[in-house]
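Q: I have 364 residues here and want to know how they pack in 3D. Can you give me a structure?
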Amino acid sequence: MFLTKTSTTIHGKTYTHYKIVESIREAGRVKHRVLWSLGNVTEEQAQQIRAVLAVTHGTEWVSAPFAEIAVTRHAAYPDVAVGHALWQTGDWGKFWGADTFWVEALVLNRLIDPQAKIHLHSWAAGTVLPAHHGLTPDTLDPYAVYRVLDRMAAREAEVQQALAAHHRSAPGESKSPTFFYDLTSTYVDGTTSPLAKAGYSREHRPDRTQIVIGLLITATGSPIYGQVWRGNTPDVTTVQTVVADLKQRLALGSCILVFDRGMVSSANLAAIDAAQHLYLSAVDRDELAGLPFWPAAWPEAVDEDHWQEAVTHRGMEAYDAEHTLWYREWTTAERRYVVAFDYRRFHLEDTAQARAVHNPGCSH
């Protein structure tokens, strides 16, 4: 049995009729016999009727009262399925080979529900990820991830090379790509890591040893390079390693590096110039007075009442529609500088200084 639909147009109006029919054979010919004429039903009702017919006469459908249906096991699906689809776009399954399941599990767990490695097995078993790989949760080895981690560490350079190659082949990528480089730190509680040292803690935990982590990302936020240093490594000493790896490890040509003022040094800038890269950074406030154009760019301090007149007379242009951020370019024989004045920041600092002068005992 199956449901049929017929439409008839009378005087410009369309009428729809549904029938339940069955196929019969008469005199060697197949005919349809109408069992029930249902008249006009909604599309939703038609779908329900088709489902009932499929359950009645099919082998792939099962009918049961709702109260008798019990869920004995469920698996996390939507976020893992999306993550798996993204994983496949990078062809990482082919790259990792036999290790791909646990590497993907590590990545997706970090994105979705970060947990310690000891819990990764139970997390992965509770998702649809094993099914995507043709595995069943009860066949997963809870200790396999630790062996995979060792093999991942051994392929660090290969991973970064693959990420860089993927970036180079991305549509619309410029010949001189821009990369952002920065550092962070994370403290550790253990005592056996050779990298764990006391240093400047960005997490405000000077009571713990730490490690320093450097990351290089593209202009769209995709990481292509990372490095780990001892916890007492100064920011400024990491730049030349990154510059060397851009060419030797990642095979990247000329690019633009963006980093903060804590990494600026004459040796670092010389290394970037020698590698034929460009860079964008900030000049430390204490170094401004030593710039050759500074007396002309900022001859005197401004105050709250006359700042607009001051920036206009100095040839600065408004960058935003609110006219709160102003800038002007200055060029020397070796460098291009952009001098900026942010009124909102100026106002906050000026207010804080006035408060400190009038209330020296107060701190905010």
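Q: Anything worth noting?
A: Residues 2-68 form one domain. The mean pLDDT is 89.
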